[in-house]
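Slack export, channel: ligand-projects

TW: morning all. Re-posting the request from yesterday since it got buried. We need the structure predicted with the small molecule present, not the apo form. The ligand is zinc ion; the SMILES is in the block with the sequence. No rush, but it would help planning for next week.
GE: picking it up
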Amino acid sequence: MLANGQVQLVSPRVYPLPINQLEDGMFESRFSGKLQKIARPGGYSSGSCYWNVEKHVNQHGGSKVNGWLLNWWPRLYTEAMHHAVWKSPSGELIDVTNDPYGSNEHGHSTFSEDESIPINLEFWPCIPSDWCYLQHDLRNLTYAFIHSCHARSVIARLYSQFVLQNGLKLDENGRYPGKPARNLTEKRLLEAIEAITLSIGGQINELKRLDVVRAPDDVTEQCPCGSGLAYKKCHGVASS
Ligand SMILES: [Zn+2]
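GE: finished. pasting the full token output, ligand included:
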């Protein structure tokens, strides 16, 4: 779930959480669902899941299912991000939103249904993620990163409510028409979102730089971090 900051997000090293990796008590609040591995075929737009699903239902039938997307940075954290997916007329759950970080190579998502949070598409919902940080040398940095992400979603929600109060509605793609900002408060809020997005990007780059594992002799072997991917596709990918 991304708000409409204009700064490109830096990709964290995240994968769909393998469903056997969820442990009891991993998340303290809200998230407590049963995990499902669902298809994420790609080829859709990114970061506007609620609107993507709505359009999909209008075009193809089926229905919208809300819940949580489980993203996992091996050894560092698991994030439960509020998300919507499409239930096809035959009852299959399909993620019709692209990975906001530009990668759909996994071909699936890890998802848990939860309809307890009402979603109003008049403004960007900005539901804060639920986080669980994992035991690792980098836990202090990871903790700081998670706090920055939380702060970003709080500011993004303020922005979202502000533009709603000023009579500006989201378009059918979940984006605000009429940029640039029309007044100082809106401009300041957008600047705050951009600033914290840049700062989060720096934190992600720092985590990537410090989160190293020893390369296996053969880089096509499984990565020692436990992601289940080949080293060359996981920690062996040079961070940009
Ligand atoms: Zn790895």
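GE: first-pass observations. The two ends are 23 Å apart (CA to CA). Confidence is low (pLDDT under 50) at residues 1-5.
TW: perfect, thank you
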